[in-house]
Structure formats: C-alpha cells, structure tokens
Amino acid sequence: MKRKVGLVYGGKSAEHNVSLQTALAVINALDMNKFDIHPIYIKENGEWVRGAALTEPVEALHSLKLEKAGSTISPVSLNTELFPTNSEEQESLDVIFPLLHGPNGEDGTIQGLLELVNIPYVGNGVLASAAGMDKVIMKNLFAQDGLAQAKYVHFIKSDYEKSTEEALQSVEENLGYPCFVKPANLGSSVGISKCANREELVEAINVAFEYDRKVIVEEGIVGREIEIAVIGNDDPICSVVGEIAPKKAFYDYKAKYEDGDTDLIIPGHVTETEYEMIKEMAIKAFKAIDGSGLVRADFFLTEDGKALINEVNTMPGFTPFSMFPLMWKHTGLEYAKLIEKLVDLAIERFEQKQKIKYTF
Asked: Which residues form a coiled coil (predicted)?
C-alpha cells in the first residue's frame, strides 16, 4: 500500500525560495507508484495551504505556490486521527517530509508542532534541529565534545550596540583578519560576509543583524572545504566526501543556487586516513546534537592534514546543485532510494518513541 507523504515547503524564512527549489527536486524524484505525494505550502506570511495529491511531476517552480490550487488549513489537520475533519482532502498523512530551510522550519519549530500532533516526520528532532540552526549553540556543543574547529566570537544586537568598540576589538584580538561574519540562525550562505578590515567588519555585522539578533564571527581558515553526508538514527553511516572548490572568494548564495559557479568534486581527493578522520568527526558531531535522519557535516582540511569542523546542516538542500544527494549517489544510493531511506528512518524513530512510557 502506498505511503501518504506530506511535503511541507516554503516557509516564513529568508530561505523560502531555496525551499521551493528543494521541494521541486524531491517531488520529481519520488516514485509515485510507492508514494501518494501531498504538497503543503507555507506562504511567506506563515499561512498554510494544502493542495490535492499530485498525479504527475511538477515542471514549474511557481506551480508549487498553490495560490489558487489549494485550501488554507490549520497545521493540526495533518493528523485527522487526533483532529477529525470532514474534508476528504484532509485525510491523515503517514509521514511528513519538512523541506524547510532556516528559521521556522529547520530550527525545531515545525518539529515541535509535528511532535505535538504525533505524526512521523523526516529528519532531526526538536533539540538537534534547534542546536544545528544556532551556530553558537552548535559550536559550543562541538567544543564540549572536543571537536576541533575554528575560533569564534559572538554577540547579540543589543550588546553590540551598547559596546560596539569592545565587540570589534574582541574580533580583532581573538580572530584577526580575514574573518567571516554570519547570522547565527540562518543557512544557505544568506547574510554571510568575508572581511579584510574593520570597515568591512562593521558593514558585515550590520548586514548580518538584518537577518538575526545574534551574530557569530569566525576566523578565516586556509584550507579546502570538505563535506560529508550522514544518515541514520542510533547507528549513523557516512557517504564519500565531497569538495567545494568555489571560483569566488567563498561559497556564497549565488554560487550555490543560481549560477553554479563552483566546482563540486565528488569524491573529494582525500587520503584514507583523512577520510576516516572526517567520518569519525562527522558521526561524533551528529551524536553531539542528538541527530536523527540526516545531516551534512562541513569541514576545513588544512595543508597539514588537520580537519576542523565548520558546521552541520540538519536539513541540507536537495536541489540539483546540492552536495548531500550527490555524495550519496557516488556512494551507491540513488536520489529516489535516499528519500525512501529517510522516510523509513522517520517511521523507525516514530515507532521507537511510541514505546516510551508517558505515565507513572
């Protein structure tokens, strides 16, 4: 019997358009002989719209916006066993695949909602999603587990405005130039700047604060950008590594999603010793945030063979340019099979949780 999969995409986030690209790729990869695909679009204002089950692939990105082809719903209607509805279109779903990036999707918020309505969902839980979204919390957890990483400082907007000079001196004394300024709770290289002097640093911090109340500044590392994909629950496994070779100063939003102006080398050129080190660190990072389902772990590999973990992404993109599915493809797991595996992992985790005793 077919599984009814709800694909939730869009979202009230600066990464709304990235999510649409991910959704388009996933929809067109799913085997419609195995799955009934139910599109659920979250508008930029936060309104939820559910469309009819898809009967064929989707060709145009704008078709996913469901402006006239869906009905506005309450998110709780995703589980009609708990919240009955008379609408035939609102039948219960077997599993939800959140294809959301950034705040209000990748940060534990929708995961908390899905926990409350007691429905299986693909990917990381509330804690891992929240920790993986907040780069400061994530790096603090990595430090706690002894994972090697670049030096960093961070501050919230109100503190920065009260003590601007002190904050700038902290960056210069602890990190120096070049350095990278990032919103703490955003991904897809949105709001990230590389700085070579104080003037650029001040401008970059102001840009980052447009996207978040918390900013992190990291030291510039000279090294190759290496990524590895992880899937699993209690016993995660890793793909081959991939290498990002941007033709620009760094791997920015445009290079990732628009012009493809980046060389993606898969498998990346690493020694067996380097691979085993990166794999071990990736699994350790996965467990440090209590991950489940999937993460993409990003590293810097220095000339002397030292690996520094940069971050984990708990909901990596599935666009045609995305590293996560490409690395698994080169490992022997094709895109469609990868999605099926992630759905299986979601069901597995859900069934485990149903065995937990909630009364005393």
From this structure: none
User: What mean pLDDT value characterizes the chain?
Assistant: 90
Q: Which residues fall within 8 angstroms of residue 255, CB to CB, at 6 or more apart? A: 189, 246, 247, 248, 261, 262
Q: Where do you find CATH 3.30.1490.20 in the chain?
A: 151-219
Q: What stretches of the chain adopt beta strand conformation (E)?
A: 3-10, 35-42, 48-51, 70-73, 95-99, 152-156, 179-183, 193-195, 214-219, 224-232, 237-246, 262-265, 293-301, 307-313
Give me the catalytic one of 19, 77, 129, 188.
Answer: 188
pLDDT at res. 216: 97
What span, in angstroms and rounded, lies between the C-alpha atoms of 104 and 111? 9
| 313 is known to lie in a ligand binding site | yes
Class of domain 151-219: alpha beta
- pTM higher than the cut 0.85: yes
Q: Is the CATH number of domain 222-352 3.30.470.20?
A: yes
Task: Tell me if 170 is assigned to a ligand binding site.
Answer: no
Q: Tell me whether residue 188 is one of the annotated catalytic residues.
A: yes
- Exactly one of 243, 274, 322, 340 is catalytic; name it: 322
Across the chain, how many H-helices and E-strands are there? 11, 14
Distance CA 204, CA 119 (A): 41
Architecture of domain 3-121: 3-Layer(aba) Sandwich (3.40)
